[in-house]
Amino acid sequence: MTASGGLPNHESVARELRTVREKGLGALRRLKLTELHRVARQIDLTTTDAEPEPAAVEALVRQAVDHLDGGEFQEAAEYTFGLVGGTKFAPSTERRRQAAKAANVQPETFRKGLEKDIIEQTAEAVLALCHDAAMRRAHLAMERRHPAESRLAVAWVERFEAYYRIWTPAYALGADLRAALQTYQEEPADHLPWDPDSEEPFDPVREAQGYARSALHWYARFLLEVRRFMAKHGGLWLLSDTEVENDVRDAVYRVGWHNPINEENDSWLRRTLATRQLEEAELFYRALESTADGEMIHAIWQKFVLDGHEAEVDGDTSKSQIHSTIQACDDYTSKVDADWMKIADWYAPGQAPPRGVDGAGLYERLVSE
Fold first, then answer.
1. Does one domain contain both 217 and 249?
2. What is the mean pLDDT of the chain?
3. Structural domain total, the chain
4. Among 49, 61, 51, which residue's Cα sits nearest to residue 25?
5. Looking at the structure, do residues 270 and 345 belong to the same domain, yes or no?
6. Among the ranges 59-68, 189-198, 226-235, which has the highest mean pLDDT value?
């Protein structure tokens, strides 16, 4: 039985998964798994309408288990369905024994409790795979300017809203890092470069450090938005295809990897920003200045930016972590922009998305006036 919107019914999927658990993957060709075969067709694991393909159903079960949260639960699920090497043709009792061992419980306890949870959660993951496939088909239709189901079109807009909540701090982080590097190259002056009549001396080091401090605020906001995305969407990147998803996921990872802030300090930054009133930058800066952890993290970050400037002075930025961070920010924003442009009907096809100004651009404009 198929539910509304073309998705299979959770109960029927769970029932067929129980059959797979009992009979094993080696018996797939002999089993009548109507719903699992239908799902395999929906997510393009098979194109046949004839008898079910065991390889397609096995691939479906494996993908569904991969959607679980990892750890002992997923490991137990892999043993439950015989996805671990050497267990595909194992009897159901042996697979249950190994699954129970992975979950650190007795086989009978596992059978009465966790095994049922595994089957139901795997069924939920099968439904999620169906939904993802439907979303991608809608994306393709919108990209080609064909009609798409309005519910799925709205779902895409909502998903991109989540991506752009990360996009904003990623873009600002890259822009402020660029501005800091450029300002370090300026020469001291008796007046502000944009105001020849001023009596205030211009200190490029202080100005660059200001940009760097602002970049640290945006980095904290980036971390916080990624955490919120993980909480709301489970870290599931759903874009036009898996290659783009991998590129975006890798870019997010590289933003955090190419800097000297460790996970403990990342946590401090997230928590500090989240607990400031309205997450305002001013209060975040005060925390940097008034706490030992804040001062330490700020000093590490300022050295990180200064090292990038010195790499430019030396003429070799190939191994510069700050330049790699900027590139990762650019990769994230450009990949998300490109995917959004495919379905944003109010833009002409092929037109580049508009980009805002950054600190460096505003500075150049101010000085030239």
1. yes
2. 86
3. 2
4. 61
5. yes
6. 59-68
110, 143, 176: which is the final residue of a domain? 143
* Confidence (pTM): 0.67
**What is the Cα–Cα distance from 108 to 327, expressed in whole angstroms?**
53
Cα separation, 238 vs 249, in Å, equals 10
Secondary structure tally for the chain: helices H, strands E: 15, 0
Amino acid at 285: Y
| Whether 358 contacts 181, CB under 8 Å | no
- Per-residue pLDDT tens over the stretch 144-154: 665 556 666 66
Read off φ and ψ for residue 85, nearest 5 degrees: -50, 130
- State which amino acid sits at residue 67: H
Pairwise CA distance, residues 43 & 237, whole Å? 16
Both 162 and 282 in one domain: the answer is yes
The residue whose two tokens read 């004839």 is 50
Average pLDDT on 253-265 reads 95
Question: For 202, phi and psi rounded to 5 degrees?
Answer: -100, 120
Residue type, 104: N
User: Is the pLDDT score of 16 beyond 80?
Assistant: yes
CA 169/CA 25 separation, integer angstroms = 46
Nearest Cα to 94, choosing from 82, 105, 109?
A: 82
pLDDT digits (tens, 9 = 90+) for 71-104: 889 899 999 999 998 899 999 999 999 999 999 9
Distance CA 368, CA 179 (A): 16
